[in-house]
Amino acid sequence: MIEAVPGCLVENYEHLIEDLKLSDANDRHVLAAAIACQADAIVTSNVRDFDLGSIKALPPDDFCTSLYEKNPARVFQTVRALRLRLRRPPKTADQLLSLYERQGLPQLSRLLHQEIERI
């Protein structure tokens, strides 16, 4: 991930953990890292455990769908490139979108199915 997305690693957030209050104390490091890097949102399937105030907790499908709405061409390009890198086993566009749906991305999968030939 560090090579694919330079600058994605959040450091020096540990001092914030102790003062944070969440329903699951094991999630405090996630919020601390988000605060340290001034994130607008945390992408998580566990939105119920995050009462974040100014930082939104977004389910992955909502986040991915918002990316699609902002730049559908870029999302199609990225998903196609990702699919073409899958080799063990390779996947058709339909297989990949079915996998996305099973993994909790039904909205994104439906949107991408509308122009599946682009994948």
Beta strand count:
2
Total individual domains: 2
> In this structure, how is the largest beta sheet organized?
2 strands, parallel
Strand content: 5-15%
Determine the N-to-C terminus distance.
23 Å
Shape: elongated
Helical stretch tally = 6
Overview of this protein structure:
The chain has 119 residues and is mainly alpha-helical. The protein has two domains: 14-58, no CATH class; 62-118, no CATH class. The protein is 47% helix and 5% strand. The chain contains six helices and two strands. The two termini are 23 Å apart.
Q: What does the secondary structure layout of this molecule look like, with pairings?
A:
Layout: H1 14-17, H2 28-36, E1 41-43, E2 56-58, H3 60-70, H4 72-85, H5 93-102, H6 106-113
Parallel strand pairs: 1-2
Helix pairs in contact: 3-4, 3-6, 5-6
